[in-house]
Amino acid sequence: MKDFLIAPSILSADFARLGEEVANVLAAGADVVHFDVMDNHYVPNLTIGPMVCEALRNYGIKAPIDVHLMVKPVDRIVPDFAKAGASIITFHPEASEHVDRTLGLIKDSGCQAGLVFNPATPLHYLDYVMDKLDVILLMSVNPGFGGQSFIPGTLDKLRQVRQRIIDSGRDIRLEIDGGVKVDNIGEIAAAGADMFVAGSAIFGKPDYQAVIDAMRSELAK
Ligand code: DX5
Ligand code: ZN
């Protein structure tokens, strides 16, 4: 497994040319496609669903698709995303009635499963489910929009979660989402993250490869 994964958030891509945008960012060296699903209920924005995920697969996208569900309720959309070609499905525990059940549903559908923590969501949701997690995603902005600034308190939360992963002895990815840029990715990695979502930092620049290369050279320091 790669040490560090770069996962561009297609929230900042040009939706009118989505297939091409995803193909381009993968050709530029991205590892994973981060797919933000917003429902105008759990979060104040509305994006894309399983049909778009399936369309990307039909377009020929082979890379892992990391579906970040910002929806409530969670369970009924999980099988649809699994059928549509999702590789990883993460959800916000406070949006699910039964966190353990939702994790089981994701695993049973053949996907990797993860929990997402908003900046003010406590970590106690991890207490009894570490054995079911493939990914833990910490939000470093409040969910709903791209282009926000990284909340510095997330660094300490990353260190706490990294320690919990070490204590568990399990191979769990620690993903960070929100305000990740070339100039802060190094300190975010030092705090324990190993999977980096970046939307505006990548899609906001004309040369995706230049940004991804710059991120990798920060990570190599
Ligand atoms: C926010 C989304 C993020 C967002 C990140 O709710 O979950 O994935 O697209 O965008 P940037 O990298 O621009 O902060
Ligand atoms: Zn996201």
TrEMBL record:
Assigned GO CC terms: cytoplasm
E.C. code: 5.1.3.1
Residues that, per the record, bind substrate: S9, H68, G144, F145, G146, G147, D177, G178, G179, G199, S200
Pathway(s): Carbohydrate degradation
Gene3D superfamilies xrefs: Aldolase class I
Keywords of the record: Carbohydrate metabolism, Cobalt, Isomerase, Manganese, Metal-binding, Zinc
Active site per the UniProt annotation: D36 (proton acceptor), D177 (proton donor)
Pfam families reported for this sequence: Ribul_P_3_epim
Entry binding sites for a divalent metal cation: H34, D36, H68, D177
Gene Ontology BP, a term: pentose catabolic process
Bound cofactor: record note: Binds 1 divalent metal cation per subunit.
Role: Catalyzes the reversible epimerization of D-ribulose 5-phosphate to D-xylulose 5-phosphate.
Family membership noted in the UniProt record: Belongs to the ribulose-phosphate 3-epimerase family.
PANTHER family, sorted: RIBULOSE-5-PHOSPHATE-3-EPIMERASE (PTHR11749)
Protein name: Ribulose-phosphate 3-epimerase
Taxonomic source organism: Gallaecimonas pentaromativorans
